[in-house]
Design goal:
Blueprint (H helix, E strand, L loop, with lengths): L18 H12 L5 E8 L2 E9 L4 E8 L9 E9 L4 E12 L2 E4 L1 H7 L1
Antiparallel strand pairs: 1-2, 2-3, 3-4, 4-5, 5-6
Length: 115
Amino acid sequence: MSENFSGNFELKTEKLPSFEEIWTIFERVLGDQKYKEVRKIEDEKGLKILEIKIPGDLEDLELGFTRKNSNPDSNSSVHTSYYDKEGNMLPGAEIVARYINGEWKISADLLIKLY
């Protein structure tokens, strides 16, 4: 038995943020602070994970990007995490920006801290 399908099928591909778009968000958080790249993972679609560490006197700030995963409810995002000098994660991690429908949605908390 053979089935005949006719009609047009359109595959929707979601736009992923470019490195430049991601780095624009990082720069807003970083300002002129010095940082060290901790981890960078890329594949055929582009940047998948980027983590940088900003050293502080008492604690270190990690700024990270994670690309949207296969879960339809997920979004690419930029987040912060804090670590003590022994490398233990501290409370206070937050998402500072989400990439939704090809556009960055910046957290109100980030805007308050920046301005």
